[in-house]
Amino acid sequence: MHKLYILTGAGLRASHMDDTYDFYKGNMHTNYPLVDGKLSVQCYFEALYNCYCLYRKKFLNKFANDNETNTSSKSVLQHFDAIIFHSPYGKLVRKAFTWLTLHDLQIDANFYKKNSNLLKYK
C-alpha cells in the first residue's frame, strides 16, 4: 500500500493511495521485504503528482477571491514556508522538489519572475 499526504495550516489536504507491490513483506521466513526500487520510485512520483494536482486545485478554489493571498500565479509552491518529504534516500527528495518546480514552470511561464529567489537552483 503506497500512501502520500499533503497537509497544511490552510485547512486543506490531499492524499493518494495505490495498491502496489513495490515494497512487499510477503515472505515471513525473512526479516527483509522484497523491494522493487524502480517501481517504488515510479509510485512515489505518481503519488506526488496526484497529491499536488489535487491540493493545487483546492488551494486555488479556496483562495481565488482572497485579496491577501496572491493566486494570480497557478504555482502553489510559493505559498509554502517549508516542505517536508518522506525520504527513503536524499536524492529522491531533491528530484521530487525539482519535479514540482518544473511542473509549476509548465503551468506558469512567469514563475521565475515571481520567485527570483529560486533562480540560483535553475
From TrEMBL:
Residues 10-114 form the Hydroxymethylglutaryl-coenzyme A synthase C-terminal domain. Keywords: Transferase. SUPFAM superfamilies: Thiolase-like (SSF53901). It holds the Pfam family HMG_CoA_synt_C. GO terms for molecular function: hydroxymethylglutaryl-CoA synthase activity. Gene3D superfamilies: 3.40.47.10. GO terms for biological process: acetyl-CoA metabolic process; farnesyl diphosphate biosynthetic process, mevalonate pathway. PANTHER family: 3-HYDROXY-3-METHYLGLUTARYL COENZYME A SYNTHASE, HYDROXYMETHYLGLUTARYL-COA SYNTHASE. This is Hydroxymethylglutaryl-CoA synthase, cytoplasmic. It comes from Sipha flava. The gene is HMGCS1.
